[in-house]
Amino acid sequence: MAKSIIDLRKADLTLGQAAASVHVLKGIDLAIDAGESVGIVGPSGSGKSTLLMVLAGLERLDSGEIHIDGAGLHAMSEDEVADFRGRNIGIVFQSFHLIPNMTALENVAVPLELANVKDAFEIARRELVAVGLGERLSHYPGQLSGGEQQRVAIARALAPSPKLLIADEPTGNLDTETGRQIADLLFAKQAERGTTLVLVTHDPALAARCSRQVAMRSGEIVSDAAPLPAAAGEAVPA
Ligand SMILES: Nc1ncnc2c1ncn2[C@@H]1O[C@H](COP(=O)(O)OP(=O)(O)OP(=O)(O)O)[C@@H](O)[C@H]1O
Ligand SMILES: [Mg+2]
């Protein structure tokens, strides 16, 4: 059996102060095997993005444990978590989060340079070519379409060869066809590199392409299953 790359135990988190406090994650248990693709679904406000932030080490639990590839993020210092994230976790957001005054190439290369990776610009160039943007290296985000910006963000996320790729509504800001192309790219990269993919989506067709769907409601996991074969078959044409 594949080894769990994500192991979340009794994960509990309340955000906000006093009257504005929200019990966002209510003792969540979740184990994900290396190489799985998991779609997290559920109503707005159910805690999906917060769960992803916990998986990325960007949000700390109040109680419970989070192990990524055997490493206990809950017990690490902020610096240790940041270092671990830089080497092991790629993140893609709905609104791309590119740095506007850096070119596509710089957006991918600079984080590598900051992590002291050798040949950062060459790796960045290769990653951009691999997402189909070999002709857009010197473009700034404002000169790129939404789909192209998300390709840059995917290249940036994949450049350090992370074991885990996390995406929060990666197609949410894109039209249907562009969103489908971005999903194709994410699944292709996941398959090619054996990366574990955890994504949040409101799009049932995208969730159905994942090998497993986890549904949340009010801070809890209410179902956890592989999609129905018929639904998966429709969504993934041969
Ligand atoms: N910093 C915060 N302080 C207080 N409450 C917060 C904070 N961040 C999130 N919440 C609350 O936690 C709940 C879960 O938020 P989260 O962003 O995880 O939901 P979501 O499932 O991703 O929703 P959506 O589908 O709309 O993106 C929401 O009710 C939200 O208002
Ligand atoms: Mg969200």
TrEMBL record:
One of its GO terms (cellular component) is plasma membrane. It comes from the Bacteria. Residues 8-238 form the ABC transporter domain. It holds the Pfam family ABC_tran. One of its GO terms (molecular function) is transmembrane transporter activity. InterPro entries: AAA+_ATPase, ABC_transporter-like_ATP-bd, ABC_transporter-like_CS, ABC_transpr_LolD-like, MacB-like_ATP-bd, P-loop_NTPase. SMART domains: AAA. Keywords: ATP-binding, Cell inner membrane, Cell membrane, Membrane, Nucleotide-binding, Translocase, Transport. Belongs to the ABC transporter superfamily. Macrolide exporter (TC 3.A.1.122) family. This is Putative ABC transport system ATP-binding protein. It comes from Shinella fusca.
